[in-house]
Amino acid sequence: MVGPGTRHPRGHPHRALPLQRVPATMTEEMTTDAALAPRRRLPLVALLTAQLVSLAGNAVTVIAVPLYVLQTTGSPVATGVAGVFATVPIVVGGALGGVIVDRFGFRLSSIVADLASGLTVLAIPVLAATVGLPFWALLFLVFLSGLLDTPGDSARASLVPDLARLGRVPITRAAGAQSAIERSARLLGAAVAGGLVVLVGPLGALFIDAGTFLVSALIVAVLVPRAGRAGDGGSTAERHPESYLSGLTAGFRFLWENRLIRAVVLLVTATNAIDVAGMTVLKPVYATTVLGDPATLGAMIACFAGGALVGSVVFASVGHRLAGRALFVACFAVAGVLPYSAMALEIPFLALLAVMLVSGFAAGAINPMISTVMYGTIPATMRARVFGATSAGVAATMPLGAFAAGVAVEVVGLQATLVAAAVLYGCLTLTPLFDRSFHGLAAARMETSPHA
């Protein structure tokens, strides 16, 4: 999620989007101080390490809990219900928890969220092994754990710009590293979860999983400094004199009134629905009916994920030297249009794997591009609530995309649905070329320069 250009787009860089900043805030003072103080990169490295550990723990939870439910109930319906209780909190926590994070500070919120998530995960194996764990109690703990995860993620994401300035790291590089860490954590967490379930069972995996959240909290508490963090100085009343409801409303109002942020979020929300449809419906059906082997789905996903990881790493290295809008459109086109077109044409399997690898590589640059845009335009005092609201909106389209794809495959067939997905993705991808709101991509990147 990064506006990766080093040059302004044609025309005045602020005409299409007046970048909204907070005058005379602690963040601006810290920026000046950071330019004079010795460079300190350890806090940023520590934060990214904590993110890796925490997200890997989340990945273990996502795999271990459904397996435990299926093992104890033998019911696919119960397993699906548990999945719903794990997904809904992402929307609720993202939409409502950001104000709390902004009020109490990013560092403190990250620590508290990890500790609370660890306790809720730990409660599952402890209760199951002692007094028993009714299904309703399991659902409650799963919901509570998910409710705390999103605010914690928002808090850590909100710390990235300040720690990047402290280390004098270009924000595009920091955002690329953050994206690479997130993708690595999911791959690592899934692999670790599979091994733990085989060795110690789902409950044992959850018991060990609880420790990952404690480790993440300790890393932030010990290695991420308290002083100078946006949102961590002064009393809560001094930082945010408005009420909770007013703060929540202000976050959603900023999200809607800022043209660039609104355009980016709407684009990602729409394309994310197609991506989820591809992951949950189109690719599995293609692997089963066209390729004739469900195992090929794993190879397709692995190639895409591997390419995305490499793309994030490469973007972290060179993204700050590239132009914004052109790369943004190109990455969306390659990541979205290309794979659905290749499946619709039923190209040979090895060629399809190559397409997935290239598409994943392009997709790996999208998240750091968008993150950089948001870091460059969102005031530090409302970062968490805007990040949370964005996550909630994007997550809300996931069930819709999967349901629509399932209905389309049933009604018009797989190939027609793949063609429609490619065409729709292509149309959405072209919007940044015609919507003047996207002209601020490179300007947003300039606002987050470590020397700004």
From TrEMBL:
Pfam families: MFS_3 (PF05977). Keywords: Cell membrane, Membrane, Transmembrane, Transmembrane helix, Transport. It is a multi-pass membrane protein. Its main location: membrane. Residues 261-452 form the Major facilitator superfamily (MFS) profile domain. GO terms for molecular function: transmembrane transporter activity. The chain crosses the membrane at residues 44-69, 81-101, 122-144, 196-224, 260-282, 294-315, 322-341, 347-366, 386-408, 414-434. It comes from the Bacteria. One of its GO terms (cellular component) is plasma membrane. It is found in: Cell membrane. PANTHER family: INTEGRAL MEMBRANE EFFLUX PROTEIN-RELATED (PTHR23513), STAPHYLOFERRIN A TRANSPORTER (PTHR23513:SF11). This is MFS transporter.
